[in-house]
C-alpha cells in the first residue's frame, strides 16, 4: 500500500519588534562578510529583511539563501541581460516578448506597485496559429531568461516606498496543455529563491473551472502567506470585481481586464521603452562589483560558508522545497485534463486587499 503524501508543514509566521529585526539584519551582514559592500543594494537592510521574512526570521537559513543569490547573480549576471542580443536570432528576450504573454504595464496600481501582466493562454494560441513566432518559446532557458529580465526591470521601476509588485494574470485561451512542468518548476524556484518577498498580490483573472480545481489541489502545498496573496477575479462577479476597481485606475487598465484602455500591448512601443530602460540600467546596475573578479568573490562567499549546523538546516529546507515541487509536478501530470465532470469549487473572491509587507 502506497504511503499517503502530506501537505507541507506550516510554520506560523513570526512578528518581531524593530530592534530584533535590526539585530538579525546585522547578524546576517556579519556572517556574509566584507563582500556586502560590493553588493550595496542586495545587501541593504531592506533587502536582507526580505530574506529574513522568507525564512521566517531564521538567520542561518536566510544567510544561506542570500549567499546563494549572490553566487547566482555573479554567475548568471541578470543585470547584464539586454532587450536585444546582437549574437542571437531566436535566443534574445526581444523575440520572446513578441506574443505579449509577459510584459510590464506602463502604469502602477493605486499603492504604487509595479504591475507585471501575464497571459499564458497566448502561448497555446500562438503555437497553433503562428509556430514561427513561437519558436523561441520552446526553449525553457529563454523563457526563464525573459522572466529574469522582466523581474529585474520591474524591480528597478518600483517606487521608493515599495518593495513588491502585482501580477495580473489573464486566463483567456488557457487550458491544461498550456502548462509546462519544467518551466513551472524552474519559475517557482527562481521566484522563491532569487526574488523572495517580491510578490505583493497576484490576481487570477477569469480562470476556467478546470484551473480552479487544479488550484485546490496545489493550495495545500503553499505557505499561507503566499496563497493569501492570490485573488480570483471573475468579470461577471460584482463582489470580486471590486478588487480591480480598488486597485487600478480603470482609465489605464487594459480592456481585456475590464478597464477602459483599448490599446493594450503594442510590441513596437514596448520594445522602444525597454531599450531606453536598458541604457539607464547599464549605468546603475547592482553589480558594480564586477570590476572585481567574480571568481574571487565566489571564493569569499565560500570562505564565509555556514557551519555544519547551518548546512544541515539549510539542506533540510532545500529538500522540503524540492519535495514540494515534485509533488506539485505529480499533481499536474495526474490531473485529468479530459474530465468533463469537474466539480464546482468555491473560490475566495473577497475584495479585501492584501496588505503590503
UniProtKB/TrEMBL annotation:
Residues 303-357 are annotated as: Disordered. PROSITE patterns: CRAL_TRIO. It comes from the Eukaryota. Residues 314-330 have a biased composition (Acidic residues). Residues 90-265 form the CRAL-TRIO domain. Pfam families: CRAL_TRIO, CRAL_TRIO_N. One of its GO terms (molecular function) is phosphatidylinositol transfer activity. InterPro entries: CRAL-TRIO_dom, CRAL-TRIO_dom_sf, CRAL/TRIO_N_dom, CRAL/TRIO_N_dom_sf, PI_Transfer_CRAL-TRIO. This is CRAL-TRIO domain-containing protein. It comes from Rhododendron griersonianum.
Amino acid at each position: 500500500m502506497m504511503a499517503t503524501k502530506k501537505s507541507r508543514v506550516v510554520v506560523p509566521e513570526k512578528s518581531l519588534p524593530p530592534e530584533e529585526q535590526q539585530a538579525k539584519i546585522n547578524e546576517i551582514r556579519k556572517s556574509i562578510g566584507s563582500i556586502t559592500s560590493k553588493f550595496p543594494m542586495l545587501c541593504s537592510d531592506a533587502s536582507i529583511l526580505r530574506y529574513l521574512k522568507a525564512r521566517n526570521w531564521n538567520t542561518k537559513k536566510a544567510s544561506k539563501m542570500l549567499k546563494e543569490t549572490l553566487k547566482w547573480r555573479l554567475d548568471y549576471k541578470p543585470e547584464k541581460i539586454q532587450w536585444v542580443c546582437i549574437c542571437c536570432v531566436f535566443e534574445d528576450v526581444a523575440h520572446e516578448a513578441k506574443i505579449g504573454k509577459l510584459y510590464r504595464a506602463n502604469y502602477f496600481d493605486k499603492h504604487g506597485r509595479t504591475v507585471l501582466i501575464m497571459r499564458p493562454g497566448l502561448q497555446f494560441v500562438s503555437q497553433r496559429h503562428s509556430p514561427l513566432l513561437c519558436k523561441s518559446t520552446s526553449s525553457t532557458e529563454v523563457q526563464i531568461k525573459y522572466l529574469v529580465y522582466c523581474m529585474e526591470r520591474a524591480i528597478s521601476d518600483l517606487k521608493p516606498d515599495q518593495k513588491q509588485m502585482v501580477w495580473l494574470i489573464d486566463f483567456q485561451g488557457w487550458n491544461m496543455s498550456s502548462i509546462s512542468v519544467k518551466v513551472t518548476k524552474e519559475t517557482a524556484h527562481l521566484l522563491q529563491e532569487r526574488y523572495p518577498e517580491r510578490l505583493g498580490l497576484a490576481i487570477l483573472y477569469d480562470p476556467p473551472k478546470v484551473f480552479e480545481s487544479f488550484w485546490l489541489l496545489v493550495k495545500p502545498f503553499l505557505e499561507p502567506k503566499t496563497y493569501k496573496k492570490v485573488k480570483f477575479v471573475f468579470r461577471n462577479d460584482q463582489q470580486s470585481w471590486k478588487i480591480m476597481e480598488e486597485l487600478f485606475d480603470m482609465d489605464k487598465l487594459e480592456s481585456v481586464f475590464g478597464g477602459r484602455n483599448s490599446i493594450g500591448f503594442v510590441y513596437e512601443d514596448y520594445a522602444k521603452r525597454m531599450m531606453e530602460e536598458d541604457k539607464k540600467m547599464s549605468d546603475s546596475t547592482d553589480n558594480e562589483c564586477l570590476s572585481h573578479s567574480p571568481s574571487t568573490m565566489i571564493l569569499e562567499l565560500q570562505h564565509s560558508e555556514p557551519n555544519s549546523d547551518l548546512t544541515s538546516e539549510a539542506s533540510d529546507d532545500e529538500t522540503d522545497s524540492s519535495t514540494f515541487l515534485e509533488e506539485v509536478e505529480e499533481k499536474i501530470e495526474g490531473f485529468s485534463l479530459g474530465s468533463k465532470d469537474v466539480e464546482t469549487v468555491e473560490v475566495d473572491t473577497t475584495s479585501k486587499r492584501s496588505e503590503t509587507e
